[in-house]
Amino acid sequence: MSSNAAKEWSGTFKEMEDKRAKLKRQIRYQMDEHEKLDKCESADEVRKQRTAQTIDTLNKAHDKINAFLKKSDAAPRMGTGKRPQEVKSNITDNESAKMTTSKGTIQGYNGVAAVDKKHQVIVDAQVFGSGQEQHTLQPVLESIKARFQRLAISEDILKAQTIITADTGFANELNNAYLHDNDINAYIPDNQFRSRDPKFNEQKQKHGKRHQDNKIRKKTVIPASEFSFDPMNNSCICPAGETISFRGIRESDEGTKTAYFEGKLSQCRNCDKKHQCMHNPIAADHRKGKGRQVSFALNGSRPPNYTDWMKQRVDSPKGKQIYSHRMSVVEPVFGNIGTNKNLKRFSLRGKNKVQGQWYLFCLIHNIEKLKNYGQLAA
Questions:
Q1: Torsions phi, psi for 326 (to 5 deg)
Q2: Model's pTM, two decimal places?
Q3: Are 358 and 127 in contact (CB under 8 A)?
Q4: Beta strands in 57-109, from DSSP E residues, in sequence order
């Protein structure tokens, strides 16, 4: 959900330094223009004022970026993935995140809530300044466990085999390992679970969007199978007969190893098959572009992992029956908060303040549940 932060003031430290340098050049240019206008006797006074105002606006923007970069505690924000990379910082609220949603790109927070199935009471609510949800599962479950201990409801609500369901955004190997090792009765499917279910074989034909055949589809290019790959020497020859560069072997969370190759710009730029081989042939013409990239899964039996364990649980008849209730349990809660309570965006800045606002709306939801369905103790 978007917050009181401007996504225009987002960027990596390198992008902000480049923007600061660009503002310096613009200020210098406007100063030169203003000096020329001062020397010109016939210059329009309104034009002089407009130039002065432009210089003032550019100076304020430059000073804002400069002050942020020169803070004593200023440091690039790092992501939470397996190979952490720098993510975009934000000058207006550096604890928020730039994230892509179904309604476009926003600057905001990810509000997470855990809901009781029987009464749809929110038992835990937290906000995270990240668009990814995988790293939020463990903090939420640990918070629920601590809360139930504090209220003397259960010494360990997770060990009591309470059923936990979450959508595919929370699924990864680390979370599945955590659930398995802590004996938590959870059902969190991967994003391919419906493709393995025969009931959904004809879903797109029966219930898909209209005019799907008219959609612009990705251009078909020469497939990886047309490349000659030698796994013994980690070499690859493209259909044009060129040996392309080996970029290393990476291992996925599931343990699958993949070899990556990339054509040099000098090879792809002048290749006769460039337009049949590349989705974006123009990329090879730019010095910062990239040549054709191709990857090959390295064959070999990998040991079973925790994702396989979760797939077996979710794909079982019991797992399908349990997971089918998830949407009807939690989504009406978000609908109530977003539509009936009109929380369309967080109006505050800083994670602590946004957390308080999220708590408040979740509290109102719970009070309404108690008012409508609660019973006073005798």
A1: -55, -50
A2: 0.74
A3: yes
A4: 77-78, 86-87, 89-90, 97-101, 104-108
